[in-house]
Amino acid sequence: MKFTLSWLRDHLDTTATQAEILAALNRIGLEVEGVTDRGAALAPFRTARIVAADQHPNADRLRICRVDIGRDTGEGGIGPEGDDLVQVVCGAPNARAGISVIFAPPGSVIPATGATLKVGSIRGVESHGMLCSLRELGLGEEHDGIAELPDNTTPGQSYANFAGLDDPVIEIAITPNRGDALAIRGIARDLAAAGLGRLRPWLAQTVEGLFPSPVGWRIDYPEACPYVLGRTVRALRNGPSPDWLRERLVAIGLRPISALVDITNFFTFDLGRPLHVFDAGKLSGSELVICRGAGETLRALDGRDYIAGPEDCVIADDAGVQSFAGIMGGEATGVSETTTSVFIECALFDPIRVALAGRRHAINSDARQRFERGLDPALPVAALEAATRMILELCGGEASEVVVAGEPPAWQREARLRFERIAGLGGLEVAPDDAVASLEALGFAVRARDAASVLLDVPSWRNDIAMPSVLDAAPDLDPARRLGVDTVSVIEAECDLIEEVLRLRGLDAVPPVTLPPPGLITRGPVPLPSLTPRQARTAVARRMLAARGLAECVGFSFISRDAAEHFGAIPDSLRLLNPIAADLDQLRPTPLASLALAARRNAARGADAVGLCEIGPGFGEGGQLLIAAGLRTGQAPRRPGVGPEPASVWQAKADALAVLESLGVPMEALSVTADAPAHYHPGRSGTLRQGPKLVLARFGDLHPGVLKALGLDGAAAGFELFLDVVPDPKRRRRAAPDLPAFQPLTRDFAFLVALEVTADAVVRAARGAERTLITKVSLFDVYEGEKVPQGQKSLAIEVVLQPRERSLTDAEIEAVCARIVAAVGKATGGVLRG
Amino acid sequence: MSDDLDALRQETLIALDAAGDLRAWDAVRVATLGKSGRLTGLLKELGRAAPEERRIRGAALNRLRDELTLAIEARGRSLEAEALNARLASERVDVTLPVPTGGGGSIHPISRTIEEMVAIFGAMGFQLAEGPDIETDWHNFSALNTPSHHPARTDHDTFYLPTPEGEATRLLRTQTSPVQIRTMLNQAPPIRVIVPGRTYRADHDATHSPMFHQCEGLVVDRGITLGHLKGCVIEFLRAYFDQPTLPVRFRASYFPFTEPSMEIDIGWDRRSGEIGGGSDWLEVLGSGMVHPRVLANCGIDPREFTGFAFGMGIERLTMLKNGIPDLRSFYESDIRWLRHYGSSPLLPALLHEGL
């Protein structure tokens, strides 16, 4: 919303400075977005008069002007002739004695050129300034000579002031609740209530109707239009608006069109009251019908064609649809320079229907902006009178009687404020008298008041206050917790009033108060943990991954459908209906997909060996899972004495296990199987489970096909760990630690097994051979080659035996070893390697 | 001293001197003091000498034995030291060779900021609440007093997902506020939660990202006032920016789900970007007292309880605190950027260690 300071002063009688007004606007919730002061660059320029213009002795085209710049020193003698006149050398053909001009003293910056003016000598004659054209001032293209001001202009005035250009344009942001502040009068009222002056009275004088209007109204869509007024003005002449109106509209960014159009725009901004004028000569029939659209095409004033649907409210004459109600008029019945008779529309339209229609047709107009926020329902009569009067003043003609359809809606509402609630909700102590005075300044009227509260009538223009509550309670809310809409309305109206009282004082006035410690009585000032154990686990996982050398990333939750397809299911239910870009259209199945894309971007920048991780959502039909994913690519940095170390399934497995261990997952409860999903290398990947079913993580080399499709060269191995799935660690007290006093002993075994036998099977069999003595079994060597039979491999394990009661005898050790050999043989078919 | 002892002494000392390594040294030791050593032999012979001579010669032998023992031990230590030095010299390595440091990992700045927020609000008794990224339009809009025709909805460019017939419209949450709703439905007051999380809006340019992060806060209890809201937010901002006198300004504003509503600015210098300095203001938070309708929609009686809510952009606060110029770089996963702005996993945000 833009307005000029002088337009504001039409409604606000104030001595406040511009800075004070801007500060107040910010304070009361009308946020200042910008101030343009066109006059600032013109500050040095003054009105002046050429007293004498003599031919320059050394140049045919130059004149030596002696200029009255309105400076009267009272002593005489500033000019070279000893009088109060200034000598200026001027080359303009129209420079002559007697005319009023614009004078720039030395030191001025000429807006058009940016040059700074100096006292100079032109062909041997001193010149103490410059007489300017409008083009030099950046105000137009005229440059046939210096600008000539009206005769008898008093010299010495500020030119910007004289020309009405010292009027700053202020732009403020209007929040969606403040339809009343889309009017300059509404802004003035707020400022007056905030203590910046007095709201000037405004009264529309009635214009007597001289004849019955040849056009009338009929409302066939009363849900969309409860009330409409109109009247005809005939025998008028449309033409350009007067300068004052054109200047105001230009200042706020509107293009002056013709007096009739400019008048409607004036009231849109002055009173926040959009109007429409039909060219009565172009209307067919004697009735305008407000009705639903029925598929008609309307060419609107923006020159575009729209099709009116059944939800749209339109205005039609006998020839068809002529206007989108509350949004935009039609081209066919619009006014032009030749218009001699108009029908003025002044209506109330349903805000919601206007908003939805505007959104459907993607039309943003000043009218829609106001209708959808709600107009002052009590204003139509006065606004129509004021508009009629201005039309008669600017265009002549005579006005008909007013025609009406529908009824003014019942807008009257009341709201009660309990004074203690100002501090109770707003945290600011305000004396009841002061609070009431503020509200009265905003237009509220006291209906009743006692020591504790005040009952107020809400002004018609504040349709954000004490409106009927609309609740939309949770569908499955316990009926015992449901509240009546009336109960809420009362509280809400009170909140509305408190907001007004606070707003006018500025929220900076409210003293800040430290929150009391929660549960002060039971816990004292020490707060509970902020994180649940599960949330804390996520933090631990993040730290573990970073500590293992992975850089944490944050990737978009959506990626391209093509890329997503390589990492899991891409159901249509997870495809955005309105993606912002084609490569951001599918919710990702896993953050690993984002990491793979990130790795490719890094590789393109020359970083082909990276370690990345992300903890974020992956999406599937069943919902959203919190996944910790990691990806390592390329070769580890080369070092002396160490062979090439490409990213591999082993690093991925180690990363996944390290995180699981840090989360308190018992390592002995994990099993590893070679059955990871399709985006992993089928022979170099695995799944980590707790128990037979619970999949905690998967890991492995990425499938070469996926790498190729994504354009990733070289090695890449990753993992996905499902944080939501990891069971909570048992929160029981730890048992006393097992600390046997006897020294453990170790025995090594090498088994020949078939190639397909897994190390895990051998280790588990050995571990299960003896439950009390065997405390640890670990694999330390795998051998395949010439020294073992074809189709077999050798797996070497180390077994730790822990005596508990006494040292073991050789016979006992032999017995355990025999059981281990037997158990491994039974489980895997392995035999001791000879 | 008799000649033979003198000769033994001289010969032994010469031999010790000549012993170039521990093996030669040991031969001298055994030849002198060993079981069949020369000195041992002389001591054994002593018993056969006349008593008077035995006394004199015994004393001389003992002296010689003590002297040679000391000399042999000293020579032994010196040879050991030489041997060790030789070994150390042979074992020398080039310590400038590189080693794997194992580091290089880092925590993303967004995670870091969330940790800091949790630490500060945690000290004020807030708990972390979470909710799904895919929401219904009821949770994201309607429950928050933003019905479908509300002008505020046109400010949200919402991403929609296909919705099965007869079900609530599915969308990607445009704000973390739906978690407020879930919290109030599931928990009776007193409530004190913060909700950091991913949010989505169909907007993409230099200063907007289609995905970004917000942190929401919600307090509901008896006797909560706008003064508490101001106190809470001022204390947070001053702790977060580590500026005990950071200027904070409150401006009346409008949000559908709060009343009164306000926007919150901090002082800064527009030109230098210095927080707390200069004379400009920068908006960093939106906030207000929870709207009675929102409380009622969630089954909380607005006659009994009041509350406040606030929301802030995590990226924005991160950029301000760390001087990060470009929003889009947060999601680019450029390893150079991650290393530059990332933080150490071993320095988590802990109030007692300093943020």
UniProtKB/TrEMBL annotation, chain A:
It comes from the Bacteria. Its EC number is 6.1.1.20. One of its GO terms (biological process) is phenylalanyl-tRNA aminoacylation. Residues 740-833 form the FDX-ACB domain. Keywords: Aminoacyl-tRNA synthetase, ATP-binding, Cytoplasm, Ligase, Magnesium, Metal-binding, Nucleotide-binding, Protein biosynthesis, RNA-binding, tRNA-binding. Residues 410-512 form the B5 domain. Mg(2+) binds at D464, D496, E499, E500. SUPFAM superfamilies: Anticodon-binding domain of PheRS, Class II aaRS and biotin synthetases, Nucleic acid-binding proteins, PheT/TilS domain. Its main location: cytoplasm. InterPro entries: aa-tRNA-synth_II/BPL/LPL, B3/B4_tRNA-bd, Fdx_antiC-bd, Fdx_antiC-bd_sf, NA-bd_OB-fold, Phe-tRNA-ligase_IIc_bsu, Phe-tRNA-ligase_IIc_bsu_bact, Phe-tRNA_synthase-like_B3/B4. It catalyses: tRNA(Phe) + L-phenylalanine + ATP = L-phenylalanyl-tRNA(Phe) + AMP + diphosphate + H(+). Belongs to the phenylalanyl-tRNA synthetase beta subunit family. Type 1 subfamily. Tetramer of two alpha and two beta subunits. This is Phenylalanine--tRNA ligase beta subunit.
UniProtKB/TrEMBL annotation, chain B:
Binds 2 magnesium ions per tetramer. It is an enzyme of class 6 (ligase). It catalyses: tRNA(Phe) + L-phenylalanine + ATP = L-phenylalanyl-tRNA(Phe) + AMP + diphosphate + H(+). InterPro entries: aa-tRNA-synth_II, aa-tRNA-synth_II/BPL/LPL, Phe-tRNA-synth_IIc_asu, Phe-tRNA_ligase_II_N, Phe_tRNA_ligase_alpha1_bac, Phenylalanyl-tRNA_Synthase, tRNA-bd_arm. PROSITE patterns: AA_TRNA_LIGASE_II. Its EC number is 6.1.1.20. This is Phenylalanine--tRNA ligase alpha subunit. It comes from Lichenicoccus roseus.
